Amino acid sequence: MSEPDSPAAWFRVHRRTVDPRLRLVCFPHAGGTAQLYHGWPSRLPEDIEVLAVRYPGRQDRLAEPCVEDMAALAGRITRALVPYLDRPVALFGHSMGSAVAYEVALRLEARHGTTAARLLVSGRAAPHRARHSGLHGEDDDTLIAGVRSLGSLGSEVFDIPELRELLLPALRADYRLIETYRPGTPAPVRAPVRAYIGDRDPGSGHDRESVAAWAELTTAGDFTLRSFPGDHFYLDPCEAELTADIARQLEGVGRNREFIAFP
User: Fold this and answer.
1) How do strand 22-27 and strand 48-53 relate by DSSP bridges?
2) How far apart are CA 67 and CA 50, in angstroms?
3) Is 29 a catalytic residue?
4) Which of 22, 53, 85, 162 is the most exposed, having the fewest neighbouring CB atoms within 10 Å of its CB?
5) Exposure string for 25-50, b = 16+ CB within 10 A, e = fewer
6) How does DSSP classify residue 66?
7) What is the secondary structure of 210-260 as a DSSP string?
8) pLDDT value at 114 more than 90
């Protein structure tokens, strides 16, 4: 078993080459797991190494306590990511994962002098525009209904009593984390930002205008937004189109570059 804060504990690494030109770090949504990204490596160029983030409190980290504080979660992930900084890194996050990816990007800049090649945010308003539902304080049925209102991805597991009991603690902890995350004046990152949204996303604070506000959080002068057909979990049926777009965003990144190994 991996140590709780070891890189092996935090990342499921999908490697198709021994010499990747860059690494794409993927952050799941609230209640989500690294499994969300299992199909991505085969759809992306083989010289892109995919690191899917594994949050505590689920799957093979089930015995570990969930993290309910954004600063704690982002700090631990950033520390675990250091051994992978010998290549450029791009960050992709969906929903809650977008906010976590943003916070990791800030810490990479401040603590390690590393600017993410791209910050790719999906299905989430910019931190200073997000509205909160308060679902983490509601009863189990209300919390599950709120999740189901966003889309049907994986929600059938809550119909199975044994799985419901197993999965609810992580879901509630994630909602507590994201709904208590309220940065007053978020700092901009140096990375270019591209945002994605489902055109029928019913989530509070996931409207196009609030997502477009990510443009205010980059000093690179490079923000773009693309919508896909679908609800909050558009990235499942649109996986091929989304990964193709990400591959285009990352073309040329990491080519003809000298890499610096970090301690």
Assistant:
1) parallel
2) 23
3) no
4) 162
5) bbbbbbbbbbebbeebbebbeeebbb
6) P
7) HHHGGGGGBSSS-EEEEEESSSTTTTTTTHHHHHHHHHHHTTTTTTT----
8) yes
Tell me the C-alpha distance between 96 and 133, whole Å.
13
212: left (phi over 0), alpha (psi -120 to 50) or beta: alpha
- On whether the CB atoms of residues 175 and 189 are closer than 8 A, the answer is no
The neighbour count for residue 80, using CB atoms within 10 Å, is 20
Catalytic residue among 29, 95, 98, 122: 95
Cβ-count burial 207-234 (b if 16+ within 10 Å, e if not):
eeebbbbbbebbeeeebeeeebebbbbb
Domains of the chain: residue spans and CATH? 7-249 (3.40.50.1820)
pTM over 0.85: yes
| Pick from 31-35, 110-114, 255-259: least confident | 255-259
Reply yes or no on whether 232 is catalytic: yes
